[in-house]
Amino acid sequence: MDGGVSQLLEFVKQCEGKSGNALEPIIKGALEHPAIYVFSELTHCPPVEAFIESKANEKLINTLELFSYGVYLEYKNNSNKYIPLNDEMTIKLKHLTILTLCRDTRSISYKTIQSETDTPDLGKMETLVIDSIYRGIVRGKLDHDKQCFHVEASAPRDVPSERIPIMIEKLEEWLKQLESADDTIRQQLNHLNSEKDSRLFHSEKMKELYARKKEHIQQSILSSIDQSDDMPGMMRMFS
């Protein structure tokens, strides 16, 4: 579930030594490829970075950014900003939209998926989700009774630079929670070890007390036997 990184690297290699218009068919090819759902390696390779900075083909650049970070409704609401999408690219962008939804929640309602992918037909929406599962970008179960998709796992998406501080903040908060949980576990272990030591100490004391009592009783019996005139009778009594 790597989002097609290995396939993308083939397109990155094709970019070597190229510039300007020569990069356009390579970028389009990556966008159209049915197995590629991440584009960071392509976006950040030097030739494509230079192409983006040059703004030579803004619609293509916008489309690359859309497939990297965006969702389908962005395209629908501002289609003039992007290159025309063929059927495969349209489906792929809807898959990426589902992928984004899976990143933020573990259970997505059918209505949300229908709305975000502009797929009002229930059967087509389910087919879209099932296709996402078959392509290996999400894993989960469709729940017809509760009308939702239960997410088990999802492939990563590219992260825009403005989202990185938010991710760092979330990771730091997660780290704090782990440290707090670790402290709690250590305290519980220390408490359990203390109780264990206390029980062992108590057990040893009880053994010592039992041994002394036993020895005292034996000595008392022997003393009684020594003082008795009826030795055979006393022996029979304790036999």
* Termini Cα gap: 79 Å
- The share of residues in extended strands comes to 5-15%
* Overall shape: elongated
In total, the number of strands is 3
Residue runs with pLDDT of under 50 for 5 or more positions: 234-239
Counted up, domains total 2
Which keywords apply here?
239 residues; mainly alpha; 2 domains; 11 helices; 67% helix; elongated
Description:
By secondary structure, the chain is mainly alpha-helical. The protein folds into two domains: 5-158, no CATH class; 163-237. Helices cover 67% and strands 7% of the residues. The chain contains eleven helices and three strands. The N and C termini lie far apart (79 Å). The model is unreliable at 234-239 (pLDDT under 50).
A few lines on this structure:
By secondary structure, the protein is mostly helical. It is built from 11 helices and 3 strands; from the N terminus they run αααααααβααββαα. It has a 3-stranded antiparallel β-sheet.
